[in-house]
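User: Please predict the structure of the protein below. I'd like the answer in structure-token form so I can feed it into my own downstream comparison script.

Assistant: Understood. Taking the following sequence of 235 residues as input:
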Amino acid sequence: MGTIINAAAIIVATLLGVLLKKGLSDKVQKSIMFAMGLGLAALSLGWFFKDFFQIHENQIATQGDLLVIISLVIGVSIGEWIDIDGRLTKGAMAIETKYKLPPLAKGFISATLIFCVGAMAIIGSIQDGLNGDITTLVIKSALDFVTALVLAATLGFGVMFSAFSVLLYQGAITVLAGTVQSFLTPEMLASVSMVGNILLIAIGINFMELKKVKVANMLPALLVPVIYYLVMAMF
């Protein structure tokens, strides 16, 4: 139920954002995107530190340092080999051409990454699947509503199609949560959350146009901590 609310919020916000887009100049749109990127990078960095730093006996310690780096290296290697970014872009553009739609690729890919790689998407879906608690996903829906509104006002109608990505991604996690419950340790969730927040920082860098980062090619990094802890649980 939480995922359905989330997807509906994105669709409604996109429709409102597209209407708003008509009254914004290119200069204003670029300024909004920069502000969006700056805010996303700053918030994601804070979320990363929340999982990264731990306090034990009045001392600050870190966790998952090496695993996060290894996850990013392995993940981006796999992603570049498969060329996830290129395949997503070509697929979206092919649909645009075939059905004579307005440009969708950038809005769809950017919004999908923002809405799916964050910690709230993963943890909220797990909570919904395990005990029906949709609190986290409802909060995420409110945040995604604002984000989708701003994105649609600058990137257009393609943002709405990210709602289907959210339905598939979060829905799958919700359904599988009960099956893998015994393997969902706090350490695993923290590691996945840290990697996800680094990807969000990369998205923020893209929005600020500081450097072109193929964030989609980094997505396999989210699976590396999961595989690591599943293997460790066998021994």
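That's the full token string. The first strand starts at residue 53 and ends at 56.
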